[in-house]
Specification:
Blueprint lengths: L32 H10 L1 H8 L3 E3 L10 E5 L8 H13 L9 E4 L2 H4 L11 H4 L3 E2 L2 H9 L3 E4 L4 H4 L15 H8 L4 E7 L8 E2 L2 H11 L6 E2 H7 L13 E4 L5 H7 L10 H26 L6 H11 L3 H4 L4 H11 L8 H6 L13 H10 L11 H8 L14
Parallel strand pairs: 1-9, 2-5, 2-6, 3-4, 3-5
Antiparallel strand pairs: 6-9, 7-8
Length: 404
């Protein structure tokens, strides 16, 4: 019998006015609640509602305060759309209260090059509440009492390919020792239909190693990856899978380690950690299979999709993948520049975005970033200012801690 942690149903949070949001000063927390609200209103929200038709089931189980770990399975996609939509769904459930924002841990590789950020948006992961995945950062988040969104499969969970859909890859052990050390319950979240976001991804190990070393891309899914080399917008392409996120019963990691004879959570032996991580993985695999049988019989659900697209109305161009680069980038730029003088000016001042749709448009996009001034590029900025703007650095909470 797997130990469980009893928990009461939390009350829904009340949305705070904009002036109550967390500030994002230099040297502090990069999380930008106003930007996240704008994403929910203008881009990501309509996409999640009308295209992915996401559902979050069982979120009332989640305590309102941490330390707490939400552990979700990854889908074998070219891009972590499942993680982005889940993160947004959790915050939406909490009425977009900045104090209740889950801190998602992301791999540092996602910040090194601009094409690993959604549509090249500067410091996207951290502005959205993310924190660089290091063991020390993980520990400091839990010590700070944060609720953490974590994917125990890591990058292999994304790059496993469609032929291994819903097969959980080996779990990391960091969340096991830290959950026990800080008394944090682990709440599984089962991502159903996320695998169908990208049903044509088949990785080749030797090619993935080349892409990692040369382009800082963890893997190149085939055949869609080849099309993305030709047409840049296809790198972010996602099929209209009806994403369902199911929150499971919490797992008491301390009890599992006690069963293995572990009482010292500061320096536990690696062997029992691996056994407990394996137990949690097998438990989640069983329940994931059950949830797939319940919610995954129609991953696209054409009738629901047509209804969702019709209800999008004038936002339809933003909801379809071919319009995402323009919608996301213009929304970000418009927050930092004066309004366009007219429709023609609004179109012409973002001329560089045509590169997403031109054959082999990557060089044009890169060149435009170098030559254009902010917020469209980096001309006039020092090297350090460019790094800070792009976010291609490692954020260590030991150096740049979260505000109290």
């Amino acid at each position: 019998m797997t130990p469980r942690v009893a928990t009461g149903a939390p009350q829904r949070a009340v949305e705070r006015p904009p002036e109550a949001t967390r500030p994002a000063p230099r040297g502090g927390d990069p999380f930008d609640p106003d930007y996240c609200r704008a994403l929910e209103r203008d881009t990501l929200g309509p996409v999640a509602q009308h295209y992915f038709r996401s559902r979050l089931i069982g979120a009332e189980r989640l305590p309102r305060h941490g330390p707490l770990i939400v552990a979700a399975n990854h889908s074998g996609n070219a891009f972590p759309h499942d993680g982005i939509v889940l993160d947004a769904a959790l915050w939406r459930f909490d009425a977009m209260d900045p104090a209740l924002k889950f801190r998602s841990l992301f791999e540092h590789d996602l910040t090194l090059v601009w094409w690993m950020r959604p549509f090249g948006l500067d410091d996207f992961w951290r502005r959205g509440g993310g924190v660089d995945m290091t063991f020390d950062n993980f520990a400091r988040l839990l010590a700070h009492g944060e609720r953490v969104l974590y994917f125990p499969e890591g990058v292999p969970g994304i790059g496993k390919g469609f032929h291994r859909r819903y097969r959980l890859q080996p779990f990391k052990t960091s969340f096991v020792v830290l959950a026990a050390r800080y008394g944090a319950p682990v709440y599984p979240v089962y991502v159903v239909n996320g695998e169908w976001v990208h049903p044509f991804g088949y990785p080749i190990p030797w090619l993935d190693r080349v892409m990692q070393r040369v382009f800082h891309v963890p893997f190149l899914p085939l055949p869609i990856g080849l099309l993305a080399i030709i047409f840049p917008w296809m790198w972010y392409l996602a099929f209209p899978a009806r994403m369902v996120f199911v929150v499971g019963e919490p797992i008491d990691v301390r009890a599992l380690l006690w069963q293995e004879g572990v009482t010292n959570f500061e320096r536990p032996d690696r062997t029992p950690l691996n056994r407990v991580a394996g137990k949690i993985r097998r438990l989640m695999q069983t329940e994931l299979t059950e949830q797939v049988a319940r919610h995954g019989t129609r991953p696209y659900d054409a009738r629901s999709l047509l209804a969702g697209l019709r209800s999008a109305g004038r936002k339809l161009w933003r909801v379809l993948p071919i319009g995402w680069p323009v919608a996301y980038i213009r929304q970000d730029r418009d927050r930092r520049r004066p309004p366009a003088r007219n429709r023609l000016h609004a179109l012409l001042r973002d001329w560089d975005l045509i590169g997403f749709y031109l054959p082999f448009g990557w060089p044009l996009l890169s060149l435009a970033r170098a030559l254009r001034r902010p917020p469209c590029g980096y001309r006039g900025l020092t090297r350090q200012e460019r790094k800070d703007a792009r976010g291609d650095y490692l954020w260590r909470l030991s150096v740049r801690p979260l505000p109290e």
